[in-house]
């Protein structure tokens, strides 16, 4: 399996919201004014007539030169309108009243209200500020001329719909902006014990978006907040044991089930196919360009060689004048030529000769590389015939002969070096063959000892490679301890006195007799030498692993050096690329995100807010604290109805997690009942709808006369409302 494949989508326009006809007078208008969605309908009905996002956008169509006010789902009609949409809420409090007014206009228009004799029942957040409520009251009475209004807490209405009137329990309201834990005892809210967690659906989707931005900082497309919100609702879930599950979620078997591949839209680049004739022409142009460059380089080399020969002849003529001129005149000639004394002239002459010899060696080496088999038939070469001028005195040769003799000396030196290298290789091969025979004999006679030695050697080589990498990394930092110790060793070696001549009877130099003596060279290795040493270690471990894979039954391919150092085997690769094949050259793969650990991490904040640095208790810890304040009898009443409601309560596994954590702290045999609301998104409206047709609603509502007499701050307390200030 390669996980779940998901194509990223934006919220789609569900269609125009229908406009309903007016109903009979005096039926209450029920509005669940949530910070994410607004639901509106008529009191006593089982479902709301309207349900839309609580947003408003003023969008200007440049083609028509017209500005439109779009509300709710209509903001999805135009692509640009959704990005500039505004909410009436900031956190959980209404703050943008011009937006709220547009949303209410749209709501009443779609409900088809024709007259002003419908009471209003509206939800509000727990502990809603008095200023926000009084402004809403003033807006409803002054602008819309409603006959009466009553407010209730959304979480309490949801509890009322699920548990019934006069019940005891806890309403765990996981909303869009915040979450609340509301205890209810015998139908009465315990407002002084209620607690709020500053985390909700908006915070969760924003957190998920930031996690993706941090995980893929160079992703070519920007993920939108609306896309992150859809992903959160589609794929996040609550883990029964977060610590245990997150520790194994990146295991290959688990990741194959949990990893979600998010494919973003992309445009495949269409490459123009060239004909065979065009490809041949391009190849011929490249070859011709290469030949021109080679010819230019050859001409340049010849020009430089001629310049060096000319400079050498000039310096030799200048040196020859020392035998015919007086010392004073010769010094004057040297100064005119740019030399301070004869020593500087000799140094320059030596430098030019060295450059000429180096150029000749390079030319010779290039010639040797062009041969098919430079070491073929070395033993059959007749040295006297191949290099006849090597032993001829210089006095017997002219200028051309001397130059040819120098070339032959270089060729003979190279021939001698190759013969010595061939002899050394023969000795090494003999020693290696002897070691291989001894190793084979040990394997046959004592297999367990052989296996143990190979495993120890494999571990030793892995440690050496790791140490080599560490030293190489530290040598690149001049301030590291390793780099400073290397400089100290170099300074110590440079400061040691060197005796130019051994006195008679002085003891023999014993450096190298002990293996410890050679460690001084390892202490002063540079990064390039460490690189060569590391390559040698890798070659040794490859040869060793070949034997282990053939004979050691417990040594598997996943234990090899390549497997252990394969980037695909690291946790970071699993975290960012999952288990599906990844091709860096593929455009489609470059537009993919992997959604794995975040599926658990985002909803876990409800239980452990410290994950995001929130200095608050989790929802279960709050419930536990509330239960501890009550007697056994009251506690038993509270735990019989723990209703989980709100948008985040739709996370799979949340009821089981709350139940497991509470059972661990409750006495054995406790009758705990944790359940999700029948409809977490609509139950607040349904509870308000049921309550709005009761006599209590009529008695609790604030009439227009009471508003005019006592002002917008007037409030009547009831079981589902906020406490009086």
TrEMBL record:
InterPro entries xref list: Actin (IPR004000), ATPase_NBD (IPR043129)
Family indicated by similarity: Belongs to the actin family.
Designated gene of the protein: arp5
Subcellular location: Nucleus
Keyword flag Metal-binding: no
Name of the protein in question: Ino80 complex actin-like protein Arp5
CDD domains to which the protein is assigned, alphabetical: ASKHA_NBD_Arp5
Swiss-Prot/TrEMBL keywords: Coiled coil, DNA damage, Nucleus, Transcription, Transcription regulation
Superkingdom: Eukaryota
Species whose genome carries this gene: Schizosaccharomyces osmophilus
Stretches of the chain forming a coiled coil according to its record: 292-362
Annotated GO biological process: DNA damage response; positive regulation of macromolecule metabolic process
Protein's UniProt keywords contain Transcription regulation: yes
Lineage: Eukaryota, Fungi, Dikarya, Ascomycota, Taphrinomycotina
């Amino acid at each position: 399996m390669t996980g779940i494949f998901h194509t990223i989508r934006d919220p789609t326009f569900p269609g125009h919201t229908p406009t309903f006809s007016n109903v009979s007078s005096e039926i209450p208008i029920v509005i669940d004014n949530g910070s994410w969605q607004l639901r509106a309908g008529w009191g006593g009905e089982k479902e709301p007539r309207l349900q839309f996002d609580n947003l408003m956008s003023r969008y200007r169509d440049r083609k028509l030169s017209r500005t439109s006010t779009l509300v709710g789902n209509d903001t999805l009609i135009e692509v640009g309108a959704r990005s500039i949409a505004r909410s009436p809420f900031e956190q959980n409090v209404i703050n943008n009243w011009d937006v709220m007014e547009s949303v209410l206009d749209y709501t009443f228009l779609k409900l088809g209200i024709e007259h002003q004799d419908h009471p209003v029942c509206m939800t509000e957040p727990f502990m809603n500020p008095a200023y926000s409520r009084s402004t809403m009251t003033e807006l409803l009475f002054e602008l819309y001329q409603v006959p009466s209004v009553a407010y209730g807490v959304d979480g309490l209405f949801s509890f009322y719909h699920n548990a019934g009137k006069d019940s005891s329990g806890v309403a765990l309201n996981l909303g869009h902006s915040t979450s609340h834990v509301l205890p209810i005892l015998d139908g009465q809210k315990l407002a002084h014990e209620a607690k709020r967690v500053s985390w909700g659906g908006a915070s969760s989707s924003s957190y998920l978006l930031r996690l993706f931005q941090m995980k893929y900082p160079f992703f070519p497309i920007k993920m939108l907040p609306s896309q992150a919100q859809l992903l959160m609702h589609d794929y996040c879930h609550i883990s029964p044991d977060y610590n245990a599950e997150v520790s194994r979620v990146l295991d290959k078997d688990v990741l194959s089930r949990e990893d979600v591949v998010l494919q973003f839209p992309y445009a495949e680049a269409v490459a123009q196919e060239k004909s065979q004739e065009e490809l041949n022409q391009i190849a011929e142009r490249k070859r011709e360009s290469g030949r021109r460059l080679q010819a230019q380089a050859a001409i340049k080399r010849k020009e430089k060689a001629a310049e060096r020969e000319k400079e050498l002849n000039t310096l030799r003529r200048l040196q020859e004048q020392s035998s015919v001129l007086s010392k004073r005149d010769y010094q004057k000639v040297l100064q005119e030529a740019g030399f301070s004394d004869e020593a500087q002239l000799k140094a320059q002459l030596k430098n030019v000769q060295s450059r000429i010899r180096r150029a000749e060696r390079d030319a010779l080496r290039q010639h040797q590389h062009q041969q098919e088999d430079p070491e073929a038939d070395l033993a059959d070469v007749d040295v006297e015939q191949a290099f006849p001028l090597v032993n001829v005195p210089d006095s017997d040769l002219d200028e051309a002969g001397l130059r040819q003799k120098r070339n032959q000396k270089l060729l003979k030196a190279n021939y001698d070096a190759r013969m010595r290298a061939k002899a050394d290789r023969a000795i090494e091969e003999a020693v290696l063959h002897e070691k291989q025979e001894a190793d084979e004999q040990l394997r046959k006679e004592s297999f367990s000892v052989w296996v143990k030695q190979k495993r120890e050697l494999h571990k030793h080589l892995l440690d050496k490679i790791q140490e080599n990498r560490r030293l190489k990394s530290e040598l690149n930092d001049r301030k590291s301890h390793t780099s400073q110790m290397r400089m100290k060793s170099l300074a110590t070696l440079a400061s040691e006195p060197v005796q130019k001549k051994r006195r008679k009877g002085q003891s023999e130099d014993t450096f190298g007799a002990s293996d410890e003596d050679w460690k001084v060279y390892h202490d002063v290795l540079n990064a390039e030498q460490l690189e060569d040493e590391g390559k040698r270690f890798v070659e040794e471990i490859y040869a060793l692993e070949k034997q282990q894979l053939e004979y050691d039954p417990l040594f598997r391919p996943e234990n090899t050096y390549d497997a252990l150092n394969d980037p695909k085997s690291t946790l970071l690769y699993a975290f960012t690329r999952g288990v599906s094949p990844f091709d860096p050259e593929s455009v489609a793969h470059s537009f993919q995100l992997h959604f794995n650990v975040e599926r658990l991490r985002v909803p876990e904040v409800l239980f452990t807010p410290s994950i995001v640095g929130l200095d608050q208790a989790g929802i279960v810890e709050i419930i536990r604290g509330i239960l501890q304040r009550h007697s056994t009898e009251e506690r038993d009443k509270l735990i019989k109805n723990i209703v989980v409601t709100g948008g985040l309560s739709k996370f799979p596994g949340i009821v089981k997690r709350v139940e497991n954590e509470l059972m661990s702290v409750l006495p054995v045999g406790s009758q705990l009942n944790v359940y999700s609301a029948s409809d977490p998104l609509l139950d607040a409206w349904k509870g308000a709808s049921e309550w709005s047709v009761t006599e209590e609603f009529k008695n609790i509502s604030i009439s227009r006369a009471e508003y005019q007499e006592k002002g917008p701050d007037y409030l009547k307390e009831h079981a589902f409302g906020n406490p009086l200030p």
